[in-house]
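During the second half of the funding period, the structural biology subgroup turned its attention to how the target accommodates small molecules. The most pressing case was adenosine monophosphate, which had performed well in the primary screen but for which no bound structure existed. We therefore specified the complex as follows and requested a full 3D prediction, including the ligand pose.
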Amino acid sequence: MKRDPLPPGSTIGILGGGQLGRMVALAAARLGFHCHVLCPDPASPAFEVAAAHTVAAYEDADALAALAAAVDVVTYEFENVPAETAHLLSAARPLFPDARALAITQDRVAEKAFLVEAGVAVAPFAAVDTAADLGAAIAVTGLPAILKTRRFGYDGKGQAKVATRDAAVAALDRLAAPCILEGLVPFALEVSAIVVRGQDGGTAVYEIGENRHENHILATTTIPAAVDPATLAAARALGCRIAHALGYVGVLGVEMFVVRGPDGAESLLVNELAPRVHNSGHWTEDGAITSQFENHVRAIAGWPLGSVESLGRAEMRNLIGDEAADWHAIVSDPAARLHLYGKAEARPGRKMGHVNRVWPRP
Ligand code: AMP
């Protein structure tokens, strides 16, 4: 459906009040939009930078109706928005990305089936509901493999590497949820495509970033990724193909594995989709002409997309737990751009902020 662009002064509803919602709200404010954030946590980082907020459960139908009445468009910063919530909101207001994108990306089996249908290569996989499914699943994936919960996994939570059938039975018991078994991919490195697709179907992909994890949490994203130029082009093309196949509106994160054959030839397997702005796209705040946050706002508002061109080489480093206590040393480097999320308590593993460094092209 062709919609008129939302004028500045309109209000954007955001489900979820974490750092991603906070950065979307900051970018929206810069373009003259108001944001209304709904989140059950009264200490949400996004609240303090939004024009309005509601503390309510995502299942609270009255709060959702009030939110819909107060905003012009709705988006979200996390993929676990309940299906019923998405339906309630999209009956009242445009919801971007839409309920189908949410349904597909919040279930690892549905997501992988969608990718295969779209002609995108993924690791061998099989759904595992009970231990009785494991024999057939292992026949598909081989061992070792990774058992993951179909829903609600993040930062390595809700998954286990298994080397034997017995280990898989024990892991399934421990995870206590419907699972997916995936073949273990012998990847050389991990990259991601940050894709933005507008309401007119126009699509742009940021420079492909290389992601390094520590303790299952993203530690750094580096631009450009150290892979063949043909692989960079292929990763961008995959990002576009997936966004088109989803009929997507907004920013989409596409996590991929780069596999190197014995001859050094590289190929790509898609691991996971994130229907939202993505941690591996935070470098774009300082390293690209238009940040992923601004482009997400532009897309959901029906505006033309901004240039995704990068300004040089870039690195984003997450500040996890205590690392944010080094803020003074970080800002003593004039080239470092510090972003803090305003979280009061630095628990281990908690994302407190990030630092971007950009080395402009000569
Ligand atoms: P995920 O929650 O699917 O993003 O997985 C978290 C991390 O586990 C990934 O970034 C990879 O480092 C690793 N991983 C996940 N799936 C696989 C796989 N099929 N093969 C090898 N490593 C994997």
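Two results from this model are relevant to the next phase. Residues 322 and 348 are 7 Å apart (CA to CA). The pocket of adenosine monophosphate is lined by residues 123, 146, 153, 156, 182, 184-185, 190, 213, 255, 271-272 (CB under 6 Å).
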